[in-house]
Amino acid sequence: MHPVQLVFEHLTKVVAHAMGEPSQSEKACTCCGRPASEYGGFAYSIVDHYGVSQLHCPACQSFNVGDKDIMGIERFNRGNQEAPVSHKFGMMSGVGWVFCLETKQSHLLAPPGVAEKIPESTKKLLNLVEITQAGHLPFILELGWPYPLLYISSFGKKTKDLINSLSISHSSSALVCCSDDGIDATNRVFHTIDIEIAVELSKRIAELSKADGTLFNNVITSLANGRMTPSDASAALKDNQTVIDLIRLCPVDPHQRLALLRLVRKL
Question: Which one, of 131, 136, 99, 100, lies nearest residue 114 by Cα?
């Protein structure tokens, strides 16, 4: 099963009643790419903001549909109190979701600014946890749910990129952080982390002195950018065991280190 179907069945289907009736189709979905035989043969014909015709299967279309009674009011169009604009899953930057394939448990992870606009009934229905993106990984680690998991770090605003990045994570040492940044074969490694190491790294970085923090950042960045050789790094570190141990927690590949640190700095 394509992961987008899991998201639909366990989350975005909450707006299904507002989607209208799909039409019979024999074509592939232009968003997830699934053939008609896989998504059920009924889809929605739409025209995007650029005037391009699209065909969306129900799962993909659900990201583009809002219902203020279910999703709450994001804003008012041009300040007009009579023209409310509902939240949509395809326009929710900073909002995440975690789903356990074994137990079917899930949590919608929403920052305070979004959570306060969502109706209480929907919060209960979707098991909403009010939490910033910085708290996602420690929260998921604390849950202790069995793998495999599906984790979306941010629904963002580029729905097709998000849907095509959806990947199942099979262990805590290879948690895929899906988002609308997009994931493909060339960059998947930069979006896959060891969640235990990431959380531990975040804690240790927070405990560094200003001098050690500067040294750590300089060595990691310089190695990745080619401004420093491994020998230069050893000389710069000298006998600073605190920073040496911290670097040993990071991936061996210097570019993977940078990618992990970008994520860790959000924690």
Answer: 131
**CB of 188 within 8 A of CB of 170?**
no
Measured distance CA(46)–CA(24) in Å, rounded: 14
d(CA 203, CA 191): 20
* Structural tokens at position 90: 């395809």
How far apart CA 111 and CA 128 sit, in angstroms, is 10
Q: Are 169 and 98 in contact (CB under 8 A)?
A: no
Cβ burial of 203 (10 Å; 0-12, 13-18, 19+) is: exposed
- Between CA 243 and CA 204 the distance in angstroms is 10
| pLDDT tens for each residue of the chain, 267 residues long | 899 999 999 999 999 999 999 999 999 999 999 999 999 999 999 888 788 899 999 999 999 999 999 999 888 877 767 677 889 999 999 999 999 999 999 999 999 999 999 999 999 999 999 999 999 999 999 999 999 999 999 999 999 999 999 999 999 999 999 999 988 888 888 899 999 999 999 999 989 999 999 999 999 989 888 888 889 988 889 889 999 999 998 888 888 888 888 888 776
Paired with 178 in beta bridges are 152
**Which residue is listed with tokens 């189709």?**
25
Closest among 191, 105, 117, 120 to 153, alpha carbons compared:
191
Q: State how far the Cα of 124 lies from the Cα of 131, in Å rounded to an integer.
A: 15
Distance from C-alpha of 36 to C-alpha of 57, rounded to nearest angstrom: 8
The DSSP secondary-structure symbol of 146 reads: P
Q: What is the pTM of this model?
A: 0.89
What are the angstrom distances between the C-alpha of 223 and each of 6, 20, 143, 160, 198? 40, 54, 35, 34, 20
264 near 258, Cβ under 8 Å? Answer: no
